[in-house]
Amino acid sequence: MSFEEKILSAATRNQSRTVLALDLENPDPSLLLSKSMAVLRSVKDMICAVKINRQLILGLGLRAVTDSILELANNSNLPAIMDAKLNDVGHTNEFMARTYFDAGFDAIIASPVAGWTDGLDKVFSAAQSHKKGVLLLTYMSNPGAEEFYSLKADSGDNSQKPMFEILTQRALDWKAQGLIVGATKPKIISRVRELVGPKLSIYSPGVGAQGGDAETAVEAGATYLIIGRAIYANEDPKSAALGFRIEPNE
User: Fold this and answer.
1) Could you report the per-residue pLDDT of 59-92, keeping only the tens digit for each?
2) What CATH number should be reported for the domain holding residue 11?
3) Is residue 29 part of a domain?
4) Could you identify which of 1, 76, 89, 234 might form a hypothetical disulfide with 44, taking C-beta atoms 3.0 to 4.6 angstroms apart as the criterion?
5) Domain-located, residue 249
6) Handedness of CA 14, 19, 20, 22 (dihedral sign)
7) How far is CA 121 from CA 117, 196, 197, in A?
8) In this predicted model, what pLDDT tens digit does every residue of 95-110 receive, in sequence order?
9) Is the separation of the CB atoms in 139 and 149 below 8 Å?
């Protein structure tokens, strides 16, 4: 089963568009692991995937994440996304992608600004050989993102376009499995959806803690919502996850 099929299956089964961003921080590894596992156990039937950022990898180590969090996700039939934001030269990108795929991640997030030749070509090659997915960062959710992602540049056809539109086209050209567009930017989501049509899923982070609205993002064209602090920092993560639950057919 491909990554796209796996996340769609989980979204349909759990009637949810929510990707849990399990990005907790704690200087005590034992507390960090126990809290992360408790949150995932409480919401696993209300989400369609789990996303891991480097907070857990650095705090716990890759093996600990693999043997605990990824194992629970796998047993719950939830795909796991590694938020590596790969943006390096080819051999480094390839090593990191291969390492995360071998560890059990179903998809990886990469930045298209690394370019294709000896950049992301290695990531897509590793994904294809492992039958995994690549999601490309198209517009971040933080306020400062506009400085770069809305900057106009030569699009290659003698016209100036915003960077996020150029990156969106790269995702189509390179046959990515999805795009990352901040939920705090509903107008950008709408424009990206206009550009890609139904061809690519849009994953939108920034709901809740950063001010993004779940329903607004979905109405603008988001396929899945990446939600972290608004769930795991809540005293009742299960209730919080339930509050963000939007069925995939809505």
Assistant:
1) 999 999 999 999 999 999 999 999 999 999 999 9
2) 3.20.20.70
3) yes
4) 76
5) no
6) positive
7) 6, 21, 24
8) 999 999 999 999 999 9
9) yes
